[in-house]
Amino acid sequence: LPRLEESGGGSVQAGGSLRLSCTFFGSAYATYAMSWFREVPGKEPEGVAAIDTDGTLSYLDSVKGRFTIIRDNEKNALYLEMNNLKPEDTAMYYCAADVQVGRWADAANWNYWGQGTQVTVSS
Asked: What pLDDT shows up at residue 100?
């Protein structure tokens, strides 16, 4: 079973940038769809971005034009480049993986998760 590990979170001021990384430990990384979710206490996890095995991209409307999801199949890695960050982007960010996914923005459709990395954006 794959194991996921995120890194790259931190605290930035509004308008700043961060790059999150997720390392996939396991085999056949290229056969997994990958995604980023975020969660704040008291709310349901929110799908931020996803990239399928064929490179198809999906984004949450509020991050379009600011966030970019990238996968590197050579390095078994997933990235989330976040620019023009806003205080409402503050959350714990998780990467997720699965072989087949229905509706990408539904957290219940993803079976493999990392431990998360905190992103805090101050105004």
From this structure: 86
